[in-house]
Amino acid sequence: MLALEELQQEIIACRRCPRLVAWREEVAQNPPRRYIGEDYWARPVPAFGDVSARLMIVGLAPGAHGSNRTGRMFTGDNSGVFLWASLFRTGFANQPQSLHRGDGLELRDALISAAARCAPPDNKPLPQELANCRPYLLHELQLMPQLRVLLGLGKIGFDAAFDVARAAGLSDLKSRPRFSHGAKVKLNPQVSLLGTYHPSQQNTFTGRLTEPMLDAVFVQARELIQVETK
Asked: Which residue intervals of the chain are DSSP H helices?
């Protein structure tokens, strides 16, 4: 099995999905005025964190002018602003902001990944594109021997997290559990799956997802980690 660093390089070099390759590069060539002159990452975005962590967070996909620009998960857009502040408040990050790859940000006992690694048009990866990316997510999960909690951000992240957990033999459930904010599923005696609304502007600007709501999910993750490791 590849080590994390080798896997990350394989992910970064991936060109399995022609539509996503074309889109991520087109976005980089035609940025909005506020980002003109910036050197876009414009490649698949690898996971960020430590494989010895007990919490794995699974998002949807890189934002066109967020992670696709900066090259790090949930970095450079409003979704990341909301998410990292919550991770800091709940003890999973060393600082509340994620600005660029060299800003000193560190995760604490967590790893962030995603169902798709390339920015998709309209934030909607196709089923085949998600299937193409799934082996990477599965491989990352298999590199985490101390995993205790999987957290899916939004339905796609939640479903992707469950799919790889089942593929890795962590659950014998025959069908996907139903996604909801606050969903909690016991996959096996050691590992749980949680769900939360995605911290997208569509949810945070409308109040569908608030800071206390997201904080409560991470607090629950912390509690589950502590219980399962006693």
From this structure: 4-12, 18-29, 67-70, 78-89, 127-142, 154-167, 201-204, 211-228
What whole-number distance in Å separates Cα of residue 86 and Cα of residue 212?
9
Q: Are strands 192-196 and 184-186 parallel, antiparallel or unpaired?
A: antiparallel
Per cent of the chain over pLDDT 70 is 98
**CA–CA separation, 115 and 201 (whole Å):** 19
Nearby residues of 98 by Cβ (< 8 Å), 6 or more positions away: 72, 74, 75, 76, 80, 81, 84, 105
Q: Is the pTM of this model over 0.90?
A: yes
Q: Could you state, in order of their start, the residue ranges of all structural domains in the chain?
A: 4-228
For domain 4-228, give the CATH number.
Answer: 3.40.470.10
Long-range contacts of 94-100 (CB under 8 A, 24+ apart): 98/72, 98/74, 99/70, 99/75, 100/70, 100/72, 100/75, 100/76
| Higher local confidence (pLDDT), 140 or 1 | 140
- 208 to each of 55, 194, 198, how far by Cα in Å? 24, 18, 10
| Tokens, residue 73 | 């998960």
Confidence grade of residue 1 (pLDDT, cut at 50, 70, 90): low
Alpha carbons 177 and 90: distance in angstroms, whole number: 26
pLDDT for the residue numbered 228: 58
Supply the DSSP symbol for 119. Answer: P
Six-digit token pair at 197? 């609304």
Please give the Cα distance from 174 to 11 (Å, whole number). 29
